[in-house]
Write a structure and sequence with these properties.
Elements (H helix, E strand, L loop, with lengths): L24 E7 L6 E7 L5 E7 L2 H11 L5 E3 L1
């Protein structure tokens, strides 16, 4: 019997956090080597926990994410 997979419901723009704490969080773009999927979010510098914010489907999505949070550069993690 196959396991049942549960997927998170995508967040609506109104549910997205309005800011992040630059002292404790770092903006990160998580990239899958296999599928090429990219997810933008924030990594807690103390715990290493990643908080997903939005799925990045194209350059426009990435630009929107960066402008929404005032980010000039973002690091990628694979």
């Amino acid at each position: 019997m196959l396991p049942i997979l549960s997927f998170k419901k995508p967040k609506k723009n109104s549910e997205l956090p309005l800011s992040f704490n630059a002292k404790t969080q770092k903006p990160v773009l998580r990239c899958s080597i296999c599928t090429g999927e990219q997810v933008a979010g924030f990594k807690n510098l103390n715990t290493g926990k990643f908080e997903e914010v939005m799925l990045i489907k194209n350059e426009k999505d990435l630009t929107e994410f960066m402008s929404r949070y005032g980010i000039s550069e973002i690091s990628k993690e694979y």
